[in-house]
Model the fold of this input.
Amino acid sequence: MAGSGNSEVKLLGAWASPYVARARIALNLKEVQYEFLEEQFGTKSELLLKSNPIYKKIPVLIHDDKPICESLIIVQYIDEVWVSSGPALMPADAYDRALHRFWAVYIDDKFVPALFGMMRAPTEEAKAESKEQALASLQLLEEAFGKISKGKPFFGGDTIGYLDVALGAFVGWMKAFEEMNGFKLLDDAKTPLLCAWAENFCNNEVVGAVIPETAKLVELAKVMQARFKSAPPAN
Amino acid sequence: MAECDLKLLGMWASPFVIRVRMMLEEKGLSYEYIEQDVFNKSELLLKHNPTYQKVPVLIHGDRDICESLVILEYIDENWFGIGPPVLPATPYERAIARFWAAYIEDKLLLSFIGILRAATEEVKAEKIAETHTILEMLEGAFKKCSAGKGFFGGDSIGYLDVTLGSYLTWIKAAERISGAKLLDETKMPLLVEWEKRFLAADCAKKTLPSVDQLEKHARNLQVTRWKVASAN
Done:
């Protein structure tokens, strides 16, 4: 068992959350034993409110009673603590690390809002705009992959790295949206490298165990869409 | 000053640029500063940051590094051991520092710019209250991160000091324009003490614009871009 002696690791999360998936994939890659505490959809546990009082969001990693919040921060923490277990998630070179971090920021800033924008869009026009932004982001990520992977299967090279986890955790939802909307986000013609990458990523054993089945995500998406339509506008 | 092939594309009023300059100064790294007109983007900016077309961009040899917090981590890792560290030493302290930096980025700028952009007294009061709440959270963060020492980074100025410190002149300008006290010693006494200490440091003196300059710039933005009447 990896980790320092009897250190206790808990992860507050939910099966469908891609942000939680980032943390779970990282923990699994580093062979960390942890207790997964599932939050119920629509409610927030006492432990969550206590551990993440500012944002009240999952994932929260609790390591020896110390909470760590924000998925990308959690992934870096896991990489830094369980340094001698499994391959490094962050590359060795400072510039390569900067590239991984830059594109992870880009994913959260531009790609993810566009991806979920397609589901939440109140009008067809807004939906089309989100779709365009999502496709444009993936095009940039395709180019980035070409440069960063240097001909290897992952952003991290031979093994899954930080940026692979940052983007890969969303592959389940990407497949769900493809199915629901009847078009391809990852397209052999436009983003061939990312298509191959997504397959390699999902074929990894520890990843496969975390990414939910497309059918289940589609079902959840339909429930959530109905709620968005009937709910008052969010802040 | 350590010689290295470094250029920084920046804009004098941008806190994102200022924090990078502060850290380069702290580490004793020399660089060529190239001021950019962010409303008339240069070929240089478009070439070195095609994704966002924004400052700051650190050009290190043939490498382009964009996004201020990414640049700060690059500086930390690439020049580790030269001058003070940027990020704290342990993984947990680093996670906390990154969390608060993300919090500052997420909330603070929008909040005090919101004060300057407020079209009514009501909205202005709301934004002032919001800014106070955020600064009160950061008071707590300072207590935790500084562990009794002078800076968020402990004995030396680090990642969180420059992330917040780069906003100090903007906060003062917003105080002048709105007439409200934002960094209030009754509400956030530790931060007020930290501010005095930070502003006395070379890295702050060499990189922060004057309050007069920034107040003029902010009032200009109010009138020309935000279409808000500039208060007396």
Remarks:
- The interface with chain B takes residues 54, 63, 66, 68-70, 73-74, 76-77, 80-81, 94-95, 97-98, 101-102, 105-106, 140 of chain A (CB under 8 Å).
- The two ends of chain A are 43 Å apart (CA to CA).
